Amino acid sequence: MRKYSIFFLSLLFLTSLSFTSCKKDDTEEDDTLYMEGTLVYTLPGYLTALQEVELKATGITTPTSGATYKWYTTGFGVDSIIGESVKITAPGGYGDYTVILTVSHPDYASKTLSKTTVVINPSVEGSYSGTIKGPGTLIDTRDGKIYNYKQFDKLYWFTSNLQWEGAGKAYNNEKALSPIYGVLYTWNEATGGQSKSGLGNGPTGVCPQGWSIPTKEDWENLGGALKGSPVIFDSNWAGLGEIASANAKLNGTSIWKYSPNNLKNNTIGWNALPGGSSSNNFKSFANISQFGFWWSSSQKDSNNGEYRFIHFDSPDFPYNFGDKGYLGANVRCVKLY
Description:
Helix content: 10-25%
Shape: elongated
Oligomer: single chain
């Protein structure tokens, strides 16, 4: 009986000890203080080489003072910098770069947020390639931007999209993309609200002085030069999209989405690129890498302006129309030879 009693008492003691230990673990509190709020900062998805950008951290509500904001910016003008709001300079080369922000405080656990940006350098072959510069050169006196142009039959055409920022928006508000894709404009912005016809008789609109938004007749003249025979504006222009599209690359990646149905031959150097579109007064952006859209100064009716477009999966260069104040598309400027 005694041996049994000792065993029973020992078992009771161990059970009690185990229960006490579990109870202590359940009630033990974490003494770590955590910052309140969501750490936020905006880093553009694209930067041009050597572009200066301001980064501002917000969102931390507690603690209200004493926090250190440290930015790790390897490859930029400095490798690290301290401050809630800082200015940094993008690398001079091109590629993907990461910015890491850490917020620390002696009494709180730190918070970290990292973001990646793509640095592009349009003047460097390794960053941007595959287009053919036209033989003519124009400096837009409004902003100093440089454009190449080329003669197609009776007209000179820009060989890249207009990138004047006095109206319209860059795709997704990424200004670094404008030298590649140009700026998107509504028809009303592009034409100044004027619908005109006749060869070389389009409205100046957003174009530099002496240049104009292409009319229906201007587009037909281009189509005839591409095909080698007359074309009608309100038609599909079979096979001409493939001739006009450039198989360009940005930082080693093809700008057009691939399809065997459109090989992007760019045989005439018009350099069509898929600049996408915008809608709802530039609140939404879509179709980049898949569609290119270009305004005409002609109109379908009082509400709709006419445009041409190219799709990555089709060799054609069709016509369509869209709301004058809703749709955003690219612009090519022309003038009579």
